[in-house]
Amino acid sequence: MTDIDAWVWWLIGAVGLGIPLVLTAMPEFGMFAVGAVAAAVTAALGGGVVAQVLVFVIVSVALIAVVRPLANRHQRPQHRTGIDALKGRSAVVLERVDGGGGRIKLAGEIWSARALDADVSYEPGQSVDVVDIDGATAVVM
Prior knowledge:
Elements lengths: L5 H19 L2 H18 L4 H25 L9 H4 L3 E9 L2 E6 L2 E7 L11 E8 L2 E4 L1
Parallel strand pairs: 3-5
Antiparallel strand pairs: 1-2, 1-4, 2-3, 4-5
Helix pairs in contact: 1-2, 2-3
């Protein structure tokens, strides 16, 4: 029976690391798999065990240190939902809005509203911005 070369073991390790990558969608496993492939190349070129392990560690850590921050910067922004999606939107005043209340049309719906500054009032037809939602009342300015 012949001994299996070290580079084959590294490739088996790379495949083994690729399985959890596919199952868990954790890219770190892919980076370790690339490190294992680099170690397999080192073994195939005649590098010793120490060189193989060093190449594996250096490549894996370098990928994690460089690729992860880049990937995190390029993720899609989270979509705001519910009340958070209404904050910052524009609305149209339907009934005079002041510190005591009023009505606006926000996102196609009629909402009760009050002015953020109690001394300011907004007249029908005027455009306002929603700065907060307090219960079922939009706070506008």
